[in-house]
Write a structure and sequence with these properties.
CATH superfamily: Vaccinia Virus protein VP39
Radius of gyration: 18 Å
Helix content: 25-40%
Largest sheet: 8 strands, mixed
Strand order of the largest sheet: 5-4-3-9-10-13-11-12
Order of helices and strands: HHEEHHEHEHEEEEHEHHEHEEEHEE
Number of domains: 1
Strand content: 15-25%
Number of helices: 11
Distance between the termini: 27 Å
Structural class: alpha/beta
CATH topology: Rossmann fold
CATH architecture: 3-Layer(aba) Sandwich
CATH class: Alpha Beta
């Protein structure tokens, strides 16, 4: 992201809108400290959770600048998930959502990350937060069937399955599984899916989980990237509707769900919910969280 756009994002972020100067100071401090300090820095995050961050880790530095990079979706996870719950993080990257669910909330779950170098960093963040006993990290991609697939490996947060006509450097062949196979009969309450357009394939291998009564929330990235594989996002919406889900956006300050007609046009992620009454009750009675000085 160009620096100007990044600064605009930081200052206009909901947590920073009334603290623009302090947000710029925080940005400047990180830029300086991350260049002066050799290697990684341990960043103290929310409720005692921590992240191992290096300069250039776009999947983590956004949390330093804004508290919660993907504000509405990350806040939704904090408000709806409970310690006794189980989550699945598909495309976990370095572990922002996994740390929120497993360390801040204390839930148990599974984190899938196929790229070995990224997976190693994910495991480091899991160990740092002492949640290896309740969060299983799997060095696997997720698809409609088990096997192997070719992935990019040097694109940071946007590594993805190679499309049939795609040309890319640093391609690696990695193992993939289905969610139904990997999770077995275990219950899950919330799934986050961030697979850069490969969502259709992930859903095809998650029939049992999506049908489960225990699953009430899916946070799914729908940004048009499925075009590279010939996937139609409108079919994803139909599929999720058939499983009993409806689409929403979320206002964390008001703890209010906003019904949508289709995907979220203002965000890369769309929130899918079933058992709406349960979710609304949970959102209202969840504890508050301190996000760099702002209570949500």
């Amino acid at each position: 992201m160009p620096v100007l756009h990044l600064l605009q994002f930081i200052m206009n972020h909901p947590v920073n809108r009334n603290h623009k100067v302090s947000s710029l100071i925080r940005f400047a401090k990180w830029q300086i400290s991350s260049r002066l300090a050799p290697g990684a820095i341990i960043y103290e995050w929310i409720n005692g959770s921590r992240l191992i961050v290096k300069n250039g880790d776009t999947g983590l530095t956004g949390n330093i600048y804004t508290g919660l990079h993907e504000f509405a979706d990350m806040a939704y996870l904090l408000h709806v998930l409970r310690r006794e719950d189980s989550f699945i993080d598909v495309g976990a990257n370095l572990g922002s959502y996994t740390v929120l669910a497993g360390a801040v909330v204390g839930a148990r779950g599974y984190a899938f990350e196929p790229v070995p170098s990224t997976y190693a960093r994910l495991v480091d963040n899991i160990r740092l937060n002492k949640m290896a006993d309740r969060v299983a990290a799997l060095n696997l991609g997720v698809a409609h069937e088990a096997g192997t697939m070719k992935f990019t490996s040097d694109l940071d947060t946007v590594n993805h399955v190679i499309a049939a006509d795609e040309i890319s450097r640093n391609i690696i062949e990695l193992n993939v599984t289905t969610l139904d196979t990997a999770i077995g009969n275990a219950d899950s309450n919330l799934i986050k899916i961030d697979v850069e357009g490969f969502e259709t394939s992930v859903l095809e291998g998650a029939v049992r989980i999506l049908q489960s009564d225990s699953l009430h929330s899916v946070i799914m990235e729908l940004n048009g990237s499925g075009d590279r594989y010939g996937f139609d996002e409108s079919k994803i919406l139909s599929t999720m509707l058939n499983y009993g889900f409806k689409t929403f956006s979320y206002d964390p300050f008001a703890r209010r769900l906003i019904s949508l007609n289709g995907k979220n046009q203002r965000s890369g992620n769309t929130l899918f919910i079933k058992n709406e009454a349960l979710v609304r009750e949970r959102l209202q009675c969840a504890p508050q969280f301190n996000v760099i000085g702002t209570m949500i």
